[in-house]
Amino acid sequence: MTEPALPSFPDGFLWGVSTSAYQVEGAVSEGGRGRSTWDTFCATPDRVYSGHTGEVACDHYHRYPEDIALMSQLGVDAYRFSIAWPRIQPEGTGPANAEGLGFYDRLVDALCEAGIAPAATLYHWDTPQPVEDAGGWLSRDTAKHFADYAALVGERLADRVAMWIPLNEPMVTTVYGYGIGQYAPGQFLLLDSVPTAHHQNLAHGLAVQALRAAGARQIGTANNHGPIWSATDSAADRAAADYASDLLNWLFADPVLAGSYPEQLHPLLPTGFAEDLPTIAAPLDLYGVNYYEPTQVSAPSEGNPLPFDLGAVEGYPMTTNGSPVVPDGFRQFLLELRDRHGSALPPVYITENGCSYDGVDDQQRIEFLDGHLRALHAAMQQGVDVRGYFVWSLLDNFEWSKGYQPRFGLVDVDYTTQCRTPKSSFHWYRALIGGTR
């Protein structure tokens, strides 16, 4: 049975695609780029599937003109990419590396020439290794170093970049990188990782200041979000769900939007955290939501050092990356965000939404995107001010600890030949975009 046509989105609604530096660029030893925590993590045995690394990835560093041509064919309004901090400051501090800035200068110019708005993310988890060696996000100094880096990039690119995202998904760095060790830098601190959230939030606020001083416009954030579902209606499970939502959602949204942290997390934060909240809560032009799936939790089992157990979300189709496909969770969270923050919530952009499926004739990805866009439209009809949508991802790419197994791209990449082949979902998205104009 054919689904009815998607509902109409407003005139001027922005359609885009996203990637990130370590996942697509390759060229890790070229152009004066320094070593990152992900280079180190990938070189550590048993950290990444089958020893995969981002050393070559999609070779976007050399092939970006071909990839921009694909974006032009797709018809997108904007391309959200990330800038590799180790390319700009190989040691994480000091003057800018001219070759590194030059690469992004050429990329931004080529996008502008193609009529595609550059949307730049300053940090997508690839910390310079010397910064990590000095304490990484456990150190308050890292926020100051990040602000210096933001100033260097802003001074060079602010005149042409249309949208700025200082940090992508700080929750992932805190929880997966420092909490449970599944991502770089691979530490296992559990709740002792929470100070890294505050230091990233502070880095965000300081970067907003630096970017505005450089003349940047349209500055926001990109937080990973999703509804947290209680396994049952028991008081213990509901309390566990509230705690998990505070940790995974509101630890990152509340300080940016409301200048506060969830009260039950205060004991985990660094001493004097409240003094930084005015900086963290600097007004934004947009708020980015990355949505993939809901999470189900229950009261902690005996011996669990965390205040909740994670459980499987059952009864839904699954992607090849093991994620449940729950479009209505998207709508639910957007309404929850709107209800929690009200008029303090700036216009929302969906800065990532996508899925992993195999094959070039990827009908399941089309069904996923179709369902999530319908859920997004429903949230907009219920009053959430959403201005744009970026698919994750333009290209199949290096998917962190899972290596090259998951296939998130609208474009298939043969990692041996670097041949790009648009998938069925590419053509579907192209038709969707074309139909809105």
From TrEMBL:
One annotated GO biological process: cellulose catabolic process
Gene Ontology annotations for the cellular component aspect, listed alphabetically: cytosol
Alphabetized UniProt keyword annotations: Carbohydrate metabolism, Cellulose degradation, Glycosidase, Hydrolase, Polysaccharide degradation
GO molecular function, one term: beta-glucosidase activity
Keyword Mitochondrion: no
Reactions that this protein is recorded to catalyse: Hydrolysis of terminal, non-reducing beta-D-glucosyl residues with release of beta-D-glucose
Gene3D superfamilies, A to Z: Glycosidases (3.20.20.80)
Pfam families the UniProt entry points to: Glyco_hydro_1
Enzyme class: hydrolase
Presence of the UniProt keyword Hydrolase in the record: yes
Annotated substrate binding sites: 23, 124, 168, 292, 392, 399-400
Top-level lineage group: Bacteria
Active-site positions on this chain: 169, 352
EC number: 3.2.1.21
NCBIfam families given in the database record: BGL (TIGR03356)
Family: Belongs to the glycosyl hydrolase 1 family.
Protein name as it appears in the record: Beta-glucosidase
